[in-house]
Design brief:
The structure is a single chain. By secondary structure, this protein is an alpha/beta fold. It has two domains: about 10-50 and about 150-315, Rossmann fold (3-Layer(aba) Sandwich); about 55-145, Rossmann fold (3-Layer(aba) Sandwich). Helices cover about 45% and strands about 15% of the residues. It is built from 13 helices and ten strands. A six-stranded mixed beta sheet has the order 1-2-10-7-8-9. A hairpin with an 8-residue loop joins strand 1 (about 30) and strand 2. Helix 7 (about 150-165) packs across helix 8. The longest helix is centred in the middle third of the chain and has 17 residues, at about 150-165. The termini are far apart.
C-alpha cells in the first residue's frame, strides 16, 4: 500500500541530516563571476561521491528502513543518478540492490551502477515511467525506493536546502531542475520552512516540460510533445498526481529553457567552476541566465555531473 502524501516537515529534514551525516558531502556554494552585476551562486551537487544529489535521498531512505526491511534488499527505477544513489546506500549497508534502468541511459551511468553492485534490469522509457507511477515492477524483489515519490527520499534532498540557507541567508531565489519533482520538493520544503518568502523556481528543457505544461493546464498533465534529449536526468513525460500535490504548495514558478541554453550553461559551469555538469545539472543556471528568475541572490542547484566526457565535449564545443 502506498503511503498518503504529506508535507515534508522541517523535523523530517533535520532527522535526515543526522542519518546521512558522514556519507553525504556538504557541497560548496560558490559565486558565479559573470560580471554585469548578476548575483548567482552554484550549489555544486556534482561533487557528491556519486556526482549527483540523489545520494542524499537514497541514503536517507535506506537508512530509515528497519533491519528486517533492509534484509530483503532494495530496488529503484532510474536513468542513472537515483540508481547510483540507491546502489551506493545499499553497499554501505551490505544489502542487495536492483535497478530498473532506462535502456537509453548514458553508458557512464549504467557502468557506475554496476560498479556499485547493482543488478541492472533494462527497460524502455515508457516501461520505467509506468513502473514509477505504479510503484511496482514484476520480477524485481525487495523494498522499493521510489526515485522521487518517497517521503524519506525527498526529506533527504531537503538537507541541501538547510545548507543553502545556512551558507547564504540572504538568498532570494532557489532554482532546481524538475524531473520527477523530488529534488525541488525537498529543497523547497526546507527553505520555505525557514524563510517562507524565498522563491522556489523549477527549470525544465523545452523538449520535456510537463510541470510548466501542467501549470498552464491547472492540473497534472502529460507533456504532448515529449522528446528524448541529452537532458536525460530531468524532464519527465508527465507530472504524477501525487507529485503535483507535493509541488503545488512549494514551487512558485517554472522556467522552460532551450537545449542551446542548457549547452551554454554547461560550458559556463565548466569554465567558471572547473566542474562538469550534465544537462539536467545545468538547467537551473540556464533558467537563471534567461532573465526570468528575478533579482538575486539566486542559488542554482547543479544537480549532477554524470555525463560521458565525449558527449560533454561535443555539447560545449
Amino acid at each position: 500500500m502506498i503511503d498518503p502524501v504529506r508535507p515534508i516537515a522541517l523535523e523530517d529534514i533535520q532527522a535526515a541530516r543526522a542519518r546521512v551525516s558522514g556519507t553525504v558531502l556538504r557541497t560548496p556554494l560558490v559565486k558565479l563571476d559573470l560580471g554585469g552585476g548578476q548575483d548567482i551562486y552554484l550549489k555544486l551537487e556534482n561533487l557528491q561521491p556519486t556526482n549527483a544529489y540523489k545520494i542524499r535521498g537514497a541514503t536517507n531512505a535506506v537508512a530509515a528502513l528497519s533491519d528486517e526491511e533492509r534484509a530483503r534488499g532494495v530496488w529503484t527505477i532510474s536513468a542513472g543518478n537515483a540508481g547510483q544513489g540507491v546502489a551506493y546506500a545499499a553497499r554501505l549497508f551490505g544489502i542487495p540492490c536492483s535497478v530498473v534502468a532506462i535502456e537509453t541511459a548514458p553508458q557512464t551511468k549504467l557502468d557506475r551502477m554496476r560498479a556499485l553492485g547493482a543488478r541492472i534490469v533494462p527497460v524502455s522509457y515508457e516501461q520505467a515511467w509506468q513502473a514509477a507511477e505504479d510503484h511496482a515492477f514484476d520480477g524485481v524483489d525487495g523494498i522499493f525506493i521510489h526515485p522521487f515519490d518517497n517521503h524519506q527520499f525527498i526529506a533527504g534532498h531537503g538537507t541541501m536546502g538547510l545548507e543553502i540557507v545556512e551558507d547564504l541567508p540572504e538568498v532570494a531565489t532557489v532554482i532546481a531542475a524538475i524531473g520527477g519533482g523530488g529534488l525541488i520538493t525537498g529543497v523547497g520544503s526546507a527553505v520555505k520552512a525557514i524563510r517562507p518568502e524565498f522563491r522556489v523556481i523549477g527549470a525544465e528543457p523545452e523538449t520535456a516540460a510537463p510541470f510548466a505544461y501542467s501549470r498552464a493546464q491547472g492540473a497534472p498533465s502529460k507533456f504532448p510533445d515529449w522528446r528524448a534529449s541529452f537532458v536525460d536526468g530531468a524532464g519527465g513525460q508527465s507530472v504524477t498526481a501525487r507529485m503535483w500535490q507535493r509541488m503545488q504548495p512549494i514551487v512558485d514558478d517554472s522556467i522552460v529553457v532551450t537545449l542551446d541554453q542548457v549547452c551554454e550553461a554547461m560550458r559556463l559551469i565548466a569554465e567558471k567552476s572547473r566542474t562538469i555538469a550534465e544537462g539536467a545539472g545545468a538547467l537551473s543556471l540556464a533558467a537563471a541566465l534567461s532573465g526570468r528568475a528575478g533579482e538575486g541572490p539566486i542559488v542554482c542547484v547543479v544537480s549532477g555531473g554524470n555525463i560521458d566526457l565525449g558527449k560533454f565535449a561535443e555539447l560545449v564545443a
